[in-house]
Specification:
Elements (H helix, E strand, L loop, with lengths): L2 H11 L2 E4 L2 E7 L24 H12 L8 E5 L5 H8 L4 E6 L2 H13 L5 E4 L12 E5 L5 H16 L3 E6 L10 E9 L11 E8 L4
Parallel strand pairs: 3-4, 3-6, 4-5, 6-7
Antiparallel strand pairs: 1-2, 7-9, 8-9
Helix pairs in contact: 1-4, 2-3
Length: about 210
């Protein structure tokens, strides 16, 4: 599906909803009636269609601590819906770049940025094997869900750290987290959408990424 067609599909089938406990942010999010898996035929599953707990925790942390991004260039790595990019822009980041390899995620992020009246730069690419970002704040939500991807992300973030980046990670505690590089800074009780409305909320943690400890 072309980006313009994907954007129309998202606008028509994913209703605008407030982000849980962050009602100042609204996103196009999937509901059971959305038929969102029709977009999965284009490549990646539609991860961008829901709020994942690690990204939610980091968005909450940014809203509670705007000084962590205020006046700084911010990169949302694996942006998905654009939640972290939007949270950073609303918190006063000087420049925000939202990056994702899935063109449908970029279509969703563009719609969501307009919905929240923030200015973002979007890039549809996989940067992990390329040059490191320099002198930026990098936000990483829920990217350590598979061992092979986690290794690539960790290797890339190590290079970014050496290039004077500040890195924040939000995650629900997945097995592939590089725990020897992570210092917890806050914990948030987040509803995990994948387990149904009756499931208990799950603590998600925000970490500062640093050199091997």
């Amino acid at each position: 599906m072309k980006p313009s067609s994907a954007a129309r599909f998202i606008a028509e089938h994913c209703p605008v909803q407030p982000v849980p406990d962050l009602p100042h942010i609204h996103l196009h999010l999937a509901v059971p009636q959305s038929g969102i898996w029709r977009l999965a035929a284009d490549g990646e599953p539609p991860y961008w269609a829901w709020c994942w707990p690690g990204g939610l925790a980091l968005a909450h942390h940014i809203a509670a601590n705007p000084e962590m991004v205020e006046g700084r260039p911010v990169i949302d790595l694996g942006t998905g819906s654009g939640l972290l990019a939007i949270a950073a822009a609303l918190a006063g980041a000087s420049q925000v770049t939202a990056i994702d390899a899935d063109p449908n995620a970029i279509a969703a992020t563009t719609l969501n940025a307009a919905l929240n009246t923030v200015a973002l730069t979007t890039e549809c690419r996989d940067p992990l094997d390329g040059p490191a970002f320099e002198n930026a704040t990098i936000c990483v939500g829920d990217l350590f869900y598979a061992a092979d991807l986690a290794l690539r992300v960790t290797t890339f973030l190590d290079r970014c750290l050496a290039a004077s980046c500040t890195i924040w990670v939000g995650d629900i505690g997945r097995a592939a987290l590089p725990r020897n590089r992570l210092t917890p800074v806050s914990s948030w009780t987040i509803a995990d959408f994948g387990h149904g409305a009756s499931a208990p909320d799950t603590p998600s943690v925000v970490y500062r990424y640093s050199a091997i400890q």
